Structure formats: C-alpha cells, structure tokens
C-alpha cells in the first residue's frame, strides 16, 4: 500500500504516468476520481494527503472536510478556482506553477493581436464562403508606431512586451504592484489604467482573476478606448464584462477583440459574441503545447514531493500558512 494518496478530483484525459514517476520518490499513489459536485469532491478527497487540481472548484466547505490534506497544487498559474484563504485557515499549502506556459501564452497573444488587427480570421472566413475581396478588411492600420497597453506586467506580460517590440509597438502597462524601475528594465512605461485605456491601440490583459480584477474591464472602461482599438484577453474571462464587450463590438465602441477566454466556458450556442465578425475566439488553449503540459504535470507533482520531504512546496501561493501548517502536521 502506498504511503501517500494523491487525488485528482476531476475527469482527466491524460495518463498519470508523469505524476506517478515524480511522486514515486515518496511512495505516493495518484488516483483520478471524476467529480461533478462538492459532495463528490469531498467523498473522493476526504482521506487524500494531497490534491492535484486542473479546473475543479475547491471551496471552504471542501477544505473543512480534508482531514489529511497537506497541500493542493494547481496545474497552472491561476488559483481562482481554489479558496486560498480557507486553505490557509486550515493549515493547507496551496501551490501553483508560476513559470508554466510563458512562451505559449505570449505566443498566442501575439497571434491574437495579428489575427485581429490584420483581420486574418475574418478574411479567411470570407474566402471560404466565396468572397475574394481585400477591400472587405478596410480599414487596417500599420502596427509600427502604435501603442500596446498591457494590463499587468508579470512573467507573461513581460514576454509579450519583448515579442511585440520588434513589430514597432510603443509599450505601456498598468500594474499597481510593480515599480517603474522594474518596468523600465523591459522598456515599458507604467501608466494608470485610465491613460492606458485612452492611449492604447491594442490592449492585452495578463492579470490574475481576483475580486479586484473581476469585471475590471466593463462598459466604463470600454467606452474610454479608441474606436480603432482592439482588446485581447488570454488571461481569465471574467476580467472582462462579456455583455459590455458584446455591445462595444456590436456598436463600434472598439474595432475588435481576440479572446482565448470567456466568462462562461464553453460558451452557450446563443452567446452573442459568437455571432460577430470582429471577434476572434479560441477555446482557452493558449497554455497548450505538448512540452508545456508535460512540464506543468512534472512541476505540480514536484510541489507535492517537496511538501512531504522539506515541509514546503517550491511555489507556495500562501507562504503565510507556514505556522499553521507546522502546528497541524507536527502534533
């Protein structure tokens, strides 16, 4: 019998070969138990020593039922599906993989910028329907000399800045947690959100989803943008008010949008955004490459190994839990 039980409480399309290899260092068994409700997650995880989380929601109620769990690790960067405060209260480490998919998401962001501003997706659709007419794309403006505004300048935002610069963009960013000196290292000017909205020709969102950032781009913000500007979101869907965005695109407040994420995923068939020609939508795939998915699985599992061997994951989201963690698990 394995020494530790690690549960993935959701449907898992991949094998657990990588996780098993890494977690074999501590004699841990990985068990996949697809769950649809909180009750099912509790039943599956109540005796787990650790959880590996993809998209499953882990609430305070679930946390309270985890009598053995010492750490839960998110396959990825964002932890908005986990109640981090509750985990801290119960002495459970939450960890993520913050250096995951930086190239993948920044590459996808550049793809969305080009697909929207050069109207590649729209023209491709028209050609397939029998329309061969470049005038359908008017107007298109040269990217060189335009302003790219980044909402958040973390690892992915910085990668976008470096990749966008050769296209000739002037780059500005809104990030209240960053100093102008650090931004300057990436040749990015820090500005407030209002200036970024008004000055940018393209705005790309790279912020985490928090209570502060939920719907941070709504009607008021969209109306401040230029009518010729584009909005790109490869971060989290709820950062943008979807209803306001539909109106902005339909009524011409902005020129277009490139979205890898939506408020509700997958979208319902009657989601009005799906009816618009001036929006490019992809299925929340920006983080994906074969290499990145192998990497995130190995690094997520390594967080668990380090928790049980050294008392702390490599990438703790809630490092302040340490005293409660020690108090709970050294009794």
Give the SSE map:
Blueprint: E1 4-8, H1 17-23, E2 28-32, H2 38-45, E3 50-53, H3 60-65, E4 71-74, H4 84-89, E5 93-95, H5 102-117, H6 120-128, E6 147-151, H7 155-164, E7 170-174, H8 180-185, E8 189-190, H9 193-199, E9 202-205, H10 219-224, E10 230-233, H11 242-251, E11 256-259, E12 279-281, H12 290-310, H13 322-329
Parallel strand pairs: 1-2, 1-3, 3-4, 4-5, 6-7, 6-9, 7-8, 9-10, 10-11, 11-12
Helix pairs in contact: 1-12, 5-7
Structure description:
The chain is of the alpha/beta class and 331 residues long. It has 2 domains: 137 residues, Rossmann fold (3-Layer(aba) Sandwich), CATH 3.40.50; 180 residues, NAD(P)-binding Rossmann-like Domain (Rossmann fold, 3-Layer(aba) Sandwich). 36% of the residues lie in helices and 15% in strands. It contains 13 helices and 12 strands. Strands 8-7-6-9-10-11-12 form a 7-stranded parallel beta sheet, sandwiched between helices. A 5-stranded parallel beta sheet has the order 2-1-3-4-5. Strand 7, helix 8 and strand 8 form a beta-alpha-beta unit. The model has no long low-confidence stretch (mean pLDDT 95).
In short:
The protein has 331 residues and is an alpha/beta fold. Helix content is 36%, strand content 15%. The strands form 2 sheets. A 7-stranded parallel β-sheet has the order 8-7-6-9-10-11-12, with helices on both faces. Strands 2-1-3-4-5 form a 5-stranded parallel β-sheet.
